[in-house]
Amino acid sequence: MSRFLIPAAIFLALAGVLYVGVVHSPNKSTMQSALLGKTVPDFTLPVLGNPGMNLTGSQLAGRPWVLNVWGTWCVACREEHPVLLDIAKQNVLPLVGLDWKDEDDAALDWLKQLGNPYSVVVADRDGRTAINFGVYGAPETFFIDAEGRVQYRHVGPMTAEVWDREFLSRLPRGGIQ
Amino acid sequence: MKSFVRGAVLALIGAFLLGVSLPSAAFDIEAMPTPAMQKRYDAMIHELRCMQCQNQSIADSPVGLAEDLRRDVREQIIAGKTDAEIRASMVDRYGNVILFRPPFQSSTAWVWLLPIVLLILGVFVAFRIVRKRASMVAGDDSVVDTDETPR
């Protein structure tokens, strides 16, 4: 009997390990940000469409905000755009756009054609700020609290469901003063 | 006709070899100012995972993000950062996943220990099987012997 029991036990153990490995594989949409709980990386970037004007991370401190990483070359960004427009209409959290490795003109055209959900868009033309945020694919969306800490990162197109569950739920009770 | 077929086959093989060799020449790895820095740079970019194409290093990937991470490594080396500092800065931003050889921690212990555990288990199982077979063969021999003695 033990002749079959031991191989069977080994098989089950191995199957278990492989199952856990497959289920928890670093899937692009489930991978946790390494920045969770940490202060957002500092940045100073030109404001899109406002030549000569810069935005620094510290200017956003003091209230929660959302950073959305996008680019006109990113197909999934076009898919999530209507959701971002709906979110902007709610007017509960400022949406800051990070235009990642993009042409300014193409980005301005995109916003003119599809509508602009952002309070402000900064141009990360060489992708340095995106690296500091640990971005590996657009779109990515970060929730940053009033203390300037990253509370959540969503990878992939934003949906109304994710917005309600992961972003609105993280707002302090009673909304933002 | 025969020579035509042979020519076509050779051309196909040639095209195949050419096609295979092309991707490695599709992008250039940037040069460093000194040989010592170059050596560290070459080693470091092979240690870091391209996050967009997870089973390639940033040295092997032509995608934009890998290019940006190579630039980041290059700039940090030139700025005088140590290898450990560069690795730490990558882990701070992307997590342990970015290292092909993650540090030994409670969260990564199984990555390091599981192969050893499985190896020991395998050796144990193989040892048991071999021992059982050996005793079976010894038993068979005696049976064969008794069978053959009457002859």
Order of helices and strands of chain A: HEEEHEHEHEEH
How would a crystallographer describe the biggest sheet of chain A?
5 strands, mixed
Catalogue the unreliable spans of chain B: 16-26
How many runs of DSSP E, i.e. beta strands of chain A? Answer: 7
Average pLDDT of chain A, rounded to a whole number, is: 89
CA-atom Rg of chain A in angstroms: 20 Å
Structural class of chain A: alpha/beta
Task: Tell me the overall shape of chain A.
Answer: elongated
Main β-sheet, spatial strand arrangement of chain A: 5-4-3-6-7
Shape of chain B: elongated
Based on CA atoms alone, the radius of gyration of chain B comes out at 28 Å
Helix content of chain A: 25-40%
In the CATH hierarchy, the architecture of the largest domain in chain A is 3-Layer(aba) Sandwich
Distance between the termini of chain A: 70 Å
CATH homology superfamily of the largest domain in chain A: Glutaredoxin
Strand content of chain B: under 5%
Flag low-confidence runs of chain A: none
Largest sheet of chain B: none
The level of helicity of chain B is 55-70%
Number of contiguous helices of chain B: 5
Give keywords.
heterodimer, A: 177 residues, alpha/beta, Glutaredoxin, 2 domains, 5-stranded mixed sheet, two-stranded antiparallel sheet, 7 strands, 35% helix, 19% strand, elongated, B: 151 residues, mainly alpha
